[in-house]
Design a protein that fits this description.
The complex is a heterotrimer of chains A (338), B (77) and C (361). Helix content of chain A is 30%, strand content 23%. Chain A contains 9 helices and 13 strands. In chain A, the strands form 3 sheets. In chain A, strands 8-10-7-11-9-12-13 form a 7-stranded mixed beta sheet. Chain A has a 4-stranded mixed beta sheet with strand order 1-6-4-5. In chain A, β2 (65-66) and β3 (69-70) form a beta hairpin. Chain B has 77 residues and is of the alpha+beta class. Chain B has a single domain, classed as SH3 type barrels (Roll), CATH 2.30.30. In chain B, β1 and β2 (16-21) form a beta hairpin. The chains are: A alpha+beta (338), B alpha+beta (77), C alpha/beta (361). At the A-B interface, α8 of A face β3 of B.
Chain lengths: 338, 77, 361
């Protein structure tokens, strides 16, 4: 945010006047440097052929900076991933800021840089946006909304309702990193850890998977609510049963330890750079191989399968050989003493 | 009931200690276990060490369980 | 993780299960008192792995679940006082009181903060000298010494805005009351591991001596719980009920004397209100005279209004081991973790929550 003498965001920065224009033209747009955005028209106009995928999400994570990422990176990856989970190639994003008066400009600068970096990594362009400023207390530092547009290649038909009995379930990597990284920064829960958020754009990983197989039936990224919630969603939408094996689900030692300390189940902790796929059994090994070649799928593993029995339920075979139900997260994850 | 987990004492500063568990570090109170030494494991509950873990007993318990398990593998007489 | 992973060893666990199957002839009823033991049993599906001769019942060892509505209402009323910051363990936030919950009260504008430790509550008190910071003191003898320590710390630092609302409870008295009620026929008790780390195994002697109950103090990993069940089966097959410690790495017969000293120095026994059991004498802890300046009940005129018990909620009977969540008409229907009617559904180790989340297949 070079040209600014002010240190903090003021209400005037969002009012549409001189200060607003300066902020956008000199502070935000140059960070992205793409012709559509630089036009600064009321809308970005572009041509796209094919079936469109369209998604939107708002990001309110606190704290806004955490090990491994920040709200900016999250805002890009979350929306890119939502598009990728339909098998779409993500193309364009919008970014809207609602900023609390008083936010240091240097924080905004960091976030904008982060958005740019994530967008570059994903190969998407930020083509339109908005900036509003609200009174102190009316927002928690900064809220971001991103909407995204992508194209679904012909023949690709991926949905949470397409999982079929017999499908193998593949998880792209260890669970719980993001949720624990964010928790470790929260007041009142101070513990130090080397765990970083796994926040990452997965569109290229998905592209590799689609090259390896045309029988990828369902894809989802287990964000809020964790893997347990996502699998329950598959089971409900596809009206199938799901069986997973406790000892096949990778969890980093540090995440396990933090979960022990706080009383969390790693299955319920949020991830921002993982996906779970339901793949036809004959293609599972091939897809797994393809995933392992990509940096965000190097620790991919088969964790279970889809079945006809107990539709709508997710069952886990525990390490002792008994089975128990895996429920979705209800409410929020609260640290407990009991 | 009470969630208490085993953590290793890395350093001691008066009535506080730095402990670690599986790579997670935390500063805790050892006011309830003033006899603890660096390298000991403690049971950590809500930020306090409530007991020092007896490593010998832990080993003994595992040894006993392992022995009993292997006895079962022996052919019936 | 050391002292955790080894006690989750699958092979050793299977061996214990085999031995239990071979040894258990008599039909016996065991109660796991502690919510944490209930969680382990449910999470690893231990019930399924036991022979039909071993019946497991869950007991009232969940400090959240046994908090009476009248007490929770006090905490909620305090949250609504101007200038008060409520600090609480996460467990209590969603528990429904007569009209509201701490979480709802927070949504209405009250300053309610989750803390992992009383150390954090003290920190908040230091940072907000113009506010009154009240710590909601739930827990058993495991937690009581930590709360006592925070009060001693506050006193030594001259912190004048830190208060505790004590809803602390003691375990041996409620076990005795359960056994006295005769409602549930028990043969053995899996004794709480971390409560015993503080109070030792000696306080459980009365159960074996006077009631003929087999008692084993257990750790919380699946191997610990299975080993304890094996030891209980052994005691009962031999007809020799006594108190044994399975959790030898964490519990000594005399317990942690320093922790007991701190606890007794700050608190004294008092009657306590147990959900499902009413007032039990000498079953709770209140602040001693010399620490009254830290007593939230003393410092604030709390008027929580009339108590209302949720209709149809079987929490009380479930806590006493008389009924199971499956006997409750509200279970899974109107009472779910999202919309809990009673605390047994809220606390992650409450029976109802355990049944709901882990279920049986």
């Amino acid at each position: 945010m070079e040209p600014f003498k002010d240190e903090k965001i003021l209400l005037a920065h969002g009012s549409g006047g001189r200060l607003s224009h300066d902020l956008v033209e000199k502070g935000i747009v140059p960070a992205f440097d793409n012709p559509l955005l630089s036009k600064l028209d009321d809308s970005a106009v572009f041509e796209v052929k094919g079936r469109l995928a369209f998604t939107t999400d708002s990001y309110i994570v606190t704290p806004i900076f955490f090990p491994g990422g920040d709200i900016g990176r999250l805002a890009v990856c979350g929306t890119v991933n939502d598009l990728a989970m339909s098998g779409a190639v993500p193309l364009y994003l919008s970014v809207s800021f609602i900023i609390e008066e008083g936010l240091p400009l240097s924080d905004l600068g960091r976030i904008v840089a982060s958005i740019h970096e994530a967008a570059e990594e994903a190969g998407v362009k930020v083509v339109t946006g908005d900036t509003k400023v609200v009174n102190k207390g009316s927002a928690d530092k900064i809220f971001i909304n991103t909407s995204g547009v992508g194209v679904v290649p012909e023949g690709v038909n991926i949905s949470g309702s397409n999982a079929r009995p017999g499908d193998k379930l593949i998880l792209s990597g260890p669970i719980g990193d993001h949720g624990i990284a964010v928790m470790s920064e929260r007041e009142g829960l101070n513990f130090s850890t080397l765990i970083k958020s796994d926040c990452a754009p997965l569109n290229r990983l998905v592209a590799e998977m689609l090259k390896a197989s045309t029988e990828i039936h369902a894809l989802r990224d287990p964000t809020r609510g964790g893997l347990a919630t996502t699998l329950n969603e598959f089971a409900a939408q596809s009206r199938v049963g799901i069986l997973i094996h406790e000892d096949m689900i990778p969890v980093r030692d540090e995440v396990r330890a933090a979960c022990e300390m706080l009383g969390f189940d790693p299955l319920h902790v949020a991830n921002e750079g993982r996906l779970v796929a339901a793949v036809a059994p004959d293609d599972a090994e091939r897809v797994l191989e393809a995933m392992r070649q990509n940096k965000y799928g190097s620790e991919a593993s088969i964790i279970g399968e889809v079945r006809k029995e107990h539709p709508g339920r997710v069952i886990m075979r525990t390490r002792l050989g008994a089975s128990r139900i895996v429920d979705m997260l209800v409410g929020e994850l609260l640290p407990r003493i009991c | 009931m009470c969630l208490a987990i085993p953590a290793r004492v890395k350093s001691i500063m008066g009535f506080e200690a730095e402990v670690e568990l599986g790579g997670i570090g935390r500063r805790i109170s050892i006011i309830l276990t003033p006899e603890v030494k660096v390298g000991d494991y403690v049971l950590l509950h809500t930020g306090y060490a409530i007991n020092v873990i007896d490593e010998e007993e832990a080993k003994e318990t595992l040894r006993l369980l392992t022995e009993m398990a292997s006895l079962e593998d022996e052919p019936e007489e | 993780m050391k002292f955790i992973d080894e006690f989750r060893d699958t092979e050793l666990a299977k061996a214990v299960i085999d031995r239990i199957h071979r040894r258990s002839k008599r039909h016996i009823r065991l109660m796991e008192f502690c919510g944490g033991h209930t969680v382990t049993i449910m999470r690893y599906g231990i019930r399924q792995l036991l022979p039909p001769t071993v019946e497991m019942l869950s007991g009232p060892g969940c400090p959240v679940c046994v908090t009476a509505n009248a007490d929770l209402d006090k905490a909620i009323a305090l949250a609504q006082e101007p200038g008060v910051i409520i600090t609480s363990f996460g467990d209590m936030l969603k528990v429904p009181g007569s009209h509201s919950s701490l979480q709802k009260t927070r949504a209405d504008g009250a300053d309610v903060r989750i803390v992992y430790s009383t150390i954090d509550a003290l920190h908040i008190a230091r940072e907000n000298p113009e506010k009154s910071v009240v710590f909601i003191g739930i827990g058993f003898e495991t937690t009581a010494p930590t709360i006592a320590a925070s009060i001693i710390q506050a006193k030594s630092e001259g912190i004048k805005n830190y208060y505790v609302l004590s809803m602390l409870k003691l375990c041996p008295p409620v076990i005795k009351a359960l056994l006295d009620s005769g409602e549930v026929k028990l043969d053995g008790l899996i004794c709480p591991g971390h409560v015993s780390a503080v109070i030792g195994s000696l306080p459980w002697g009365f159960a074996a001596r006077d009631y003929g109950i087999a008692c084993v103090v257990s750790g919380f990993e699946p191997l610990d719980v299975l080993q304890s069940i094996e030891m209980l089966v052994e005691q009962l097959e031999k007809g020799e009920p006594r108190v044994e410690i399975a959790y030898r790495r964490g519990v000594r017969p005399e317990g942690n004397l320093k922790a007991q000293e701190l606890m007794r120095g700050v608190f004294e026994s008092a009657p306590a209100n147990w959900r499902g059991m009413g007032m039990l004498p000498e079953s709770g802890l209140r602040l001693r005279e010399e620490y009254q300046s830290f007593n939230a009940e003393h410092a604030f005129a709390i008027d929580p209004g009339p108590t209302r018990e949720p209709k149809g909620c079987l929490c009380g009977e479930i806590l006493r081991g008389v009924k199971t969540p499956l006997d409750c008409k509200l279970f899974q229907a109107t009472c779910t973790p999202d919309h809990p009617v009673g605390p047994c559904m809220v606390s992650s180790e409450g029976s109802c929550a355990s049944y709901y989340h882990y279920g049986t297949v």
